Amino acid sequence: MDYPTIADCVGHTPLVRLQRMGANTDGNQILLKLEGNNPAGSVKDRPALSMIRLAEQQGEIQPGDTLIEATSGNTGIALAMAAAMMGYRMMLIMPDSSTMERRWAMQAYGAELILVSNGMEGARDLALSMQSQGQGKVLNQFGNMANPEAHYVSTGPEIWQQTAGRITHFVSSMGTTGTIMGISRYLKEQNPAVCVVGLQPSDGASIPGIRRWPEEYLPTIFERQRVDQILDIGQHEAESTMRQLAREEGIFCGVSSGGAVYAALQLALQLQNATIVAIVCDRGDRYLSSGIFAPEQE
């Protein structure tokens, strides 16, 4: 018998409905794609494998080489897993504000971690500088078309099939924008009327995984026309919804996922008989050390 490898376990994540939150919203269904069920715990497992495989196919890397990537956490963990599985040395550059769980997870997979104090912009600049000095290959999730392609060939089709083509609205936080780009492209090929909603942090909010990029750092994979509506999400709304999901639905997720569900609930107040799908991009256990789930936070 040919047993699967861990790579075969990436994707095919469940789509579940909210049972209590938003229960009375004019016949709407709010469905959550649980990407924390991937082996390394997030939606980023999909593009991590895709980016390494593409670089191999193009002859840019081979097992034993060093890979470099700037990350706020989830992509780094996913790449650390993929590198361990595929035989690469992984160097990850991350803002020093990231939680300890994220750092420990990367190191558990054998990745080398470099912390920077000047945010994701500084991490991206350092990654490119290291590549120019010959220290390794930058996969560049912000400009690598294998990132959205992973969602075009897997996440998008899964959502379409799991909703039997009934999806009317798709909601996703935007960081690298790979998730929303790939899924939007697929869903709109099936039904151009599907409304794609992207989320960015409101002014002053600091939500892991969601970014409002300065123009010079805007991911080159981002195509504005693929997003029908962009909403600002506040810190309190994202965190409060995240805690509510755990306590009322048994769905333990991160802050950006709380933001996505909050946006889906707000949309449902304006719609009738809609099928709204939101991405729950990771699990809540990688945020525990921040104290964000403490009861006194409410």
TrEMBL record:
Protein name per Swiss-Prot or TrEMBL: Cysteine synthase
Keyword Transcription: no
Cofactors required: pyridoxal 5'-phosphate
Pathway of action: Amino-acid biosynthesis; L-cysteine biosynthesis; L-cysteine from L-serine: step 2/2
Keyword Methyltransferase tagged: no
Gene3D superfamilies per the UniProt record, alphabetical: 3.40.50.1100
Record field: catalytic activity: O-acetyl-L-serine + hydrogen sulfide = L-cysteine + acetate
Residue ranges constituting the Tryptophan synthase beta chain-like PALP domain according to the UniProt record: 7-282
